[in-house]
Each structure stands twice: as C-alpha cells, then as structure tokens.
Design goal:
Largest sheet: 3 strands, antiparallel
Helix content: 55-70%
Number of strands: 8
Shape: rod-shaped
Strand content: 15-25%
C-alpha cells in the first residue's frame, strides 16, 4: 500500500536491506516494513542444502565412468555471496529477480567434478569403481580448503560419491569376467574339496596300514618273546637232561666199578675155589679112571650102577654078540627114576 511492504523471513534466511547503496539492516529471520521504491531486499538462504550431481569422466586406462553423488553445503558468509551473486527478491521472498541463486549449486558441482576428475585419472577402471569412499574422503578434505568455496563464502558440510559405474558394455564384460572368476573359484573349491577328501582318505588308509604294521610288529614281538621263552625253557630242560645224564653216567660208572669189583671178587673167589678144588683133586690125578669110577659106584645108587653097566656094555658092543634086556628091568629103572 503506497509502496510500503511488510517482510517476514525464516531463521534459515539471511536478509540484507539496501537503501541508497548502503546496508540498512541485515540478519536471519528478520521481519520489518520497508518502502519498496527506495529499498532493495536481498534474501540469502543460510541453511544446509544438498545438491545431487551426476557426470561422466574417464579412468586412468581411458574407460568411461559415470559418477553419481551428492554435495551438502552451507552459506556461511551471506554478505559475500550477495556481493558476488544477485539474490534480490520481489514481493515474495522466494521469488528472485535473477537466476543467480541457481548458478551457485552449478558452480559448486563444477568444482566437485574438477576434483573428482583429478582423482579418477589416477585410478584404473577396476580400482576406480571400488574407490567411492576414498574419493569421497579426498573430496571432502580438498573442498574444505578450496579457494572456489572460500571466495564464495560457502562451507562444505559433506560430499558423498554414491556410485561410480562403467558403461553398460564394460559393466557386462566385468560381470562376465567376475562370473567366470566365481565359477572358476567354485570349480577350484570343488577340486580342493575332492582333493581334500582324497587326501583324507589317503591318510585314513595310511593310518590303517600303520595300524596293521604296528599290530604285525606286536605279533612278531609276541612270537619272538614266545620263541625266546621256549628256547629258555628248552635250555633249562636241556640242562636238566644233561644233569640227569651226567648223574646217570656217574651212576653207571659207579655201577661199572661195582660190577668190576664184583667180577674181580667173583673171579678171585672162583680162582680160590678152583685152586682149592685143584688142590683137593691133585692126589686123584694119578689114579685110574676105572678105579675112580668104581669108587664112586660103591656109594652110588643102584640105578647109577646099572647105567654104568650099560655104558660098559656099549663100550664093548663089538665084543657082544647079542644082549637081551627085559622090560621089567627098564620099567623098574624108570619108575624109580620118576
């Protein structure tokens, strides 16, 4: 009304009132009445703002990449920004008279792109697509002290690289290569598992064979122990037999000496008897045999006398013509002999 307007801003909006080329008032969240024909109102947003970005760059091995991320910043020196860009507003505070407020995010993104390009040109494709966190940290450090931000009165709150992607053809090739690598790893895992199973089976069989060898070795030791024990027993028995044989030999030698002594005694006794008999018969050597026979008949049995008679008859059989012996005589001799 009559050129007077009322302005009310939010705490995240820094207001600067110019009149006559001089600053009359400024500050965040102001509310006041001003005379529009003689005043210029500048409203600079001082709250944090997030600017998404996406752009294409090349890796160190000249492979195209698409970088997608977001920049979060805040205007900490609104007066400096207002001196470089036109933030003059119309009646409505959010309606600017120029497009300069939209140019600030573009400038900031351009600076981010320049720094990102420098980072990507140092990395090959494979490393670049996995370096989002490293590039984000490097950008945050460099943007904080970059002259392009400090001269604009802007401070960086955060910068994040959400994705670094190759073109679809390269992505499919990498996926195919990775897939083949995974398949090779799967095949290698299968091979390793089979190899481990074979190795385990070999160890089991080797342990079984070692067990059998140990068992056979124990059996051999047992057999050797038994043989040694048997040999020891046999040696003892042999010693006993030798002792018995030695005792029997000694006994037989004693018996032999005893028999020899008995024979010697018997021989000596026989010699003595023979000598005594010879001595007793010595007087009879000079006697006639017929006389000795007659002497023996005198005290002999009648049957002996008859037998001597038969003997004499037999000796003189050539001189006898015939001889008759009665059965009664023979029967009497036989009966008396019985």
């Amino acid at each position: 009304m009559l050129g007077f307007h009322y302005l009310k801003t939010n705490p995240t909006q820094h207001v600067i009132q110019y009149r006559g080329g001089k600053i009359r008032r400024q500050g965040p969240g102001l509310a006041f009445t001003y005379f529009k024909p003689t005043c210029s109102i500048v409203v600079v947003p001082v709250g944090s703002a997030a600017v998404p970005f996406i752009f294409n760059e090349l890796s160190a091995d000249f492979q195209p990449l698409t970088v997608q991320g977001q920049l979060t910043y805040r205007i900490h020196d609104p007066q400096r920004v207002a001196s470089l860009l036109d933030y003059t507003v119309e009646e409505i505070p959010d309606l600017y008279t120029s497009e300069d407020p939209q140019k600030l995010p573009v400038r900031l993104v351009n600076l981010v792109q320049v720094l990102t390009r420098a980072e990507l040109q140092r990395l090959p494709l494979r490393s670049a697509i996995h370096a989002s966190d490293e590039i984000s940290a490097s950008l945050a450090e460099k943007l904080g002290s970059h002259p392009g931000f400090t001269e604009l009165g802007v401070s960086v709150l955060a910068v994040s690289i959400q994705a670094i992607k190759p073109i679809p053809e390269i992505a499919r090739a990498l996926e195919a290569e990775a897939r083949e690598g995974l398949l090779r790893q799967a095949d290698q895992a299968i091979y390793d598992r089979r190899n481990a199973a074979v190795e385990q089976e070999r160890r089991i069989k080797e342990n079984e064979l070692n067990t059998e060898v140990a068992v056979e070795e124990k059996k051999r030791l047992i057999r050797e122990t038994k043989v040694s024990a048997d040999l020891a027993v046999e040696a003892k028995e042999q010693q006993v037999r030798e002792a018995r044989q030695s005792g029997q030999i000694t006994l037989e030698e004693e018996r032999k000496r005893l028999v020899s002594a008995r024979v010697d005694n018997a021989r000596a006794e026989a010699d003595a008897q023979a000598y005594a008999l010879a001595a007793s018969l010595e007087p009879l050597k000079s006697l006639d045999g017929a006389l000795l026979q007659a002497l023996s008949v005198q005290s002999a049995d009648p049957r002996k006398m008859v037998s001597l008679a038969f003997k004499e008859i037999a000796q003189n059989a050539g001189k006898i013509g015939s001889l008759n012996i009665s059965p009664e005589l023979l029967e009497g001799l036989i009966k008396k002999g019985d």
